[in-house]
Amino acid sequence: MNSEFMIAVHCLTYLNHVSGNMANSEELADNICANAARIRKVMRMLKKNGLISTKEGINGGYIFKHNPKDVTLGDIYELTSTSSLSSNWRSGDIDKDCTISSGIGDVMTEIFIEGDKHYKLFLDKLSIQDVIDKLFK
Question: Choosing a second label site near 67 at 20 to 30 A (CA), which of 13, 14, 17, 30?
């Protein structure tokens, strides 16, 4: 899981909650406690994938254009994250004359891939509306 996922979920939840469903990057950055440039990077990605739109100008900002029930955390995860379980580093050495050392990297990769599939299925069951409901219960 990376910070872009958290920022995207926070932004969409916040945009759904504020008046007019619109806020600029400075307002979002203040609420999220993150740099506005990081927010803009995530918002570009959300816009490119049709989750938000923008209004230009002095009173402009980002607009959440979907029903929060229709946007799942799995959707956002697919956009922002490769695999939360995978690792760039692998233990062992495929050239060693040891079954464990030469094979554990591939075995762990398979485990990570399967675990990530289950995690994605879990996130697919949760929507932005579920996040909102948990916040305001």
Answer: 30
